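Need tokens for this chain, all 175 residues.
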Amino acid sequence: MNLREVDPRTLTGQDAATMEHLARQRIAEWWNRADQQVSYPATDGEAVALCRAVDYTITGEELVRFFDVGAFDAVSVSHGSRNWSATDIVRLACFLECRRAWKAGSELHRAKKTTYEIALEHFRATGEAHEFFSDLESYDLRALLLLLVEADNRQQREALKVALEIKLESYCIVV
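Here are the structure tokens for all 175 residues:
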């Protein structure tokens, strides 16, 4: 394999077999955590269960939506069902990682969360997420988006991301 072939979907022959073998090793413990028997090709439900077992937030409905809107690339299909390889499941976990789709309170992902994300988890646990920012009600979505675009430093952007999540949830839009 050369550096230009980093996308596992483009690999063929021995490279693809090696990638699949390494992916199976990588996620072998996930099957135990999910209390599932190792089974390839995996189903949509098993792919979701494996990712949830390592504290990613995803449901079957979200998975279908990701495919429907083209956010996640195709997995091979046979007889109307997706057939997940270990490589596909690792790609799904990487996709969820990029989306910061971590379960609240996850110790597996805690080190990657911002101070604002951890604090919001605490406020949500106490039922006070709407009080996280005392002046959030005075901002509409457009104002928050403009502040995000203009934010010069990472801490401002992290705070605005959390503010946008809270604001969207107030409109019953789950992110």
